[in-house]
């Protein structure tokens, strides 16, 4: 398969043609030792990157001396890298393509990087064929630039073509099995409601369900299990996570599902809740988060909540949730008092009266 055909199998490619005309070329190339540069240009209607063509009339280095060297430079690119394939050619005085070169593969361009044909055409040959190659003493260098507009994150500079792999839909398909009760083999009773489930999926995700199904209990033999610590809404949210990884409402359901995640060994869900509660710490939520962390024995979350309360003691102590916590969980008041005292010990200041129990 050619490089052009291979590019079509990628996400999207865009090609453009550029013509770089240099008047009075023979005189210029005899006098100028530096490169001759074209105006900047994009590679297509959707391409925001800027490029330029350059010609060295007597090679770019010692190895290419005696040749015309041509190269393409990427001057700017908002999104890098840019994968580009290019080819150069010139037309003779009759308009026929001659002395063309192209690369069949794509190159990885970074900003201010260039790729070239160092030995594009022999200088002596070019001068000998001047009337045939240069019409009216003009050199018309043509260039085709093809850009991959949506590459797949290729890291190999040779960029061999590939097949676009569709998104894995396994989680969606497992979710449909549960939503439609397809091929279920057990029943879970939640607050009088019956839910149809799959033992293998529940056992794979939860060590508690695995143990429950392994034991030779009457409920297990009848494939019916009573769930006594969840309401239907919380159970549905937990099943949504088990079957397709769908995150429940981490804020409104934290009270219910943090405990469920802990009981059923859903560690990933448990960490998601802890992370959400840490990020959501505020004067209004700190006391409630401290209570949750204490009930679920999540030491890291508890430390974060205590640190926040220590830093905002005056504001937190005015919130009704704090006052309820003080009455129901006096040991947490003692822990908050200790944390605040430790933070202030270097200043030799007593804790403020606002944290004292009334």
Characteristic key phrases:
about 350 residues; alpha+beta; Apoptosis, Tumor Necrosis Factor Receptor Associated Protein 2, Chain A; Potassium Channel Kv1.1, Chain A; Serine Threonine Protein Phosphatase 5, Tetratricopeptide repeat; five-stranded antiparallel beta sheet; four-stranded antiparallel beta sheet; 12 strands; disordered N terminus
Descriptive overview:
28% of the residues are buried. This protein has helices at residues 3-8, 25-31, 123-128, 130-133, 170-179, 199-205, 207-214, 218-221, 232-244, 254-263, 267-279, 286-295, 299-311, 313-316, 320-328, 330-344, and strands spanning 13-22, 36-37, 50-56, 67-76, 82-91, 97-102, 107-109, 113-122, 139-148, 186-190, 193-197, 224-227. Helices cover 39% and strands 23% of the residues. It has three domains: 3-148, Apoptosis, Tumor Necrosis Factor Receptor Associated Protein 2, Chain A, CATH 2.60.210; 168-274, Potassium Channel Kv1.1, Chain A (2-Layer Sandwich), CATH 3.30.710; 281-358, Serine Threonine Protein Phosphatase 5, Tetratricopeptide repeat. Strands 1, 5, 6, 7 and 9 form a five-stranded antiparallel β-sheet that branches. It is an alpha+beta fold. Residues 184-246 form the BTB domain. It comes from Mesocricetus auratus.
């Amino acid at each position: 398969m050619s490089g052009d055909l291979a590019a079509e199998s990628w996400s999207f490619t865009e090609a453009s043609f550029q013509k770089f005309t240099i008047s009075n070329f023979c005189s210029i190339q005899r006098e100028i030792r530096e490169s001759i540069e074209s105006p900047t240009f994009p590679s297509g209607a959707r391409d925001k990157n800027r490029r330029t063509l350059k010609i060295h009339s007597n090679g770019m280095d010692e190895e290419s001396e005696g040749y015309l060297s041509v190269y393409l430079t990427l001057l700017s690119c908002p999104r890098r890298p840019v994968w580009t394939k290019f080819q150069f050619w010139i037309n003779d005085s009759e308009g026929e393509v001659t002395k063309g070169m192209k690369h069949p593969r794509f190159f990885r361009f970074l900003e201010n990087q260039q790729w070239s044909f160092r030995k594009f055409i022999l200088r002596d040959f070019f001068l000998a064929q001047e009337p045939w190659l240069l019409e009216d003493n003009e050199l018309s260098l043509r260039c085709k630039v093809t850009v991959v507009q949506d590459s797949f994150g290729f890291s190999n500079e040779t960029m061999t073509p590939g097949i676009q792999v569709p998104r894995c839909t396994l989680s969606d398909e497992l979710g449909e099995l549960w939503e439609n009760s397809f091929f279920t083999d057990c029943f879970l009773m939640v607050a009088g409601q019956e839910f149809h489930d799959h033992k293998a999926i529940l056992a794979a995700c939860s060590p508690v369900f695995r143990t429950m199904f392994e034991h030779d209990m009457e409920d297990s033999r009848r494939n019916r299990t009573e769930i006594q610590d969840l309401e239907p809404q919380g159970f549905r949210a937990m099943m949504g996570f088990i079957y397709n990884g769908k995150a429940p409402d981490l804020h409104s359901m934290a009270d219910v599902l943090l405990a469920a995640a802990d009981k059923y060994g859903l560690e990933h869900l448990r960490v998601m809740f802890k992370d959400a509660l840490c990020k959501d710490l505020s004067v209004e939520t700190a006391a409630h988060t401290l209570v949750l962390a204490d009930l679920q024995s999540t030491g890291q979350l508890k430390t974060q909540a205590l640190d926040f309360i220590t830093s905002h003691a005056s504001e937190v102590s005015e919130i009704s949730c704090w006052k309820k916590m003080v009455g129901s969980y006096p040991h947490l008041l003692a822990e908050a008092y200790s944390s605040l005292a430790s933070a202030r010990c270097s200043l030799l200041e007593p804790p403020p009266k606002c944290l004292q129990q009334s």
